[in-house]
Write a structure and sequence with these properties.
This protein is of the alpha/beta class. The protein has helices at residues 7-20, 22-34, 51-56, 68-77, 116-128, 145-150, 211-220; strands spanning 39-43, 60-65, 86-88, 100-105, 130-141, 152-163, 166-177, 182-193, 196-207, 225-229, 243-249. The protein folds into 2 domains: 7-141 and 210-249, Vaccinia Virus protein VP39 (Rossmann fold), CATH 3.40.50; 145-207. The longest helix has 14 residues, at 7-20. The N and C termini lie far apart (38 Å). Bound molecules: S-adenosylmethionine.
Length: 258
Amino acid sequence: MKHMYPRNFARFYDIIYHRVRDRADSEYFRNLARQTNGKVLEIGVGTGRLFMNAIKDGADIYGIDISQSMLDILYGKLDRKYHHRISLQSIVDFSFDFKFDLVIAPFRVIMHLMDKEEQIKALNNVYQHLNSGGSFVFDVFVPDPGILKNGICKQTDFDDEYEPGKKLRRIVTSIPDLVNQVINVLFRLEWEEDDRTKIEEWKVPLRFFFRYELEHLIERSYFDEYRIIGDYEGKPLDKDSKEFIIICKRTDIPNINP
Ligand SMILES: C[S@@+](CC[C@H](N)C(=O)[O-])C[C@H]1O[C@@H](n2cnc3c(N)ncnc32)[C@H](O)[C@@H]1O
């Protein structure tokens, strides 16, 4: 099932996430693209929060996403000469007639894939679009046992002006569904516009992963090598890790074990 981002969520995405997320992951993904000698693909490119940096750095980067609303914001920011680099495609079945040296799916893109079949299909599709020696890097959060048990009840995670004199508030509720390894997130936006307060809600399920599920999943895919680190500074996983950052490699080294 596809979960497209609604228009007003796309509209306010950059205002919220440049504030609450850039500090964590932006330099990490920027450096990965900088260090790549060849083509890069960002899957779930969204509004270009990270993509725009790579374009500024002169990367040979492409972007795909399933939400037209998000891509429309990106088109609005991106010089026309780069528009051909963006397309509406899913990680599960995207296709290009060339390959990449780096593919990234930053900020929980994989958590939008609910079932095993589409997760494996996605991994294998990425693999087939990598040159030998190329890497696929994606991230998911380390499940927090407290949140898995109790959920989150109406927590305001953004409360500020989105334009001079106009307030925007985002309130998050999450209801865990442990058996299906899903948290059902309800986002509520409240913003001032046309002399009144507008409200919009959006429910989206996010599939969460434990470490060994991730390992089994990757081992079932075509990828021949991978490692998982615990933050965007390269720290190994430990008891305080908040992120799983998974770095998969296409080595094309023949498997000598029968
Ligand atoms: C949290 S946003 C991340 C956007 C951007 N990478 C960033 O870091 O700001 C997740 C994005 O993944 C996209 N997405 C969800 N499912 C997808 C799929 N199957 N294939 C490609 N993109 C997908 C959503 O539309 C959304 O734009």
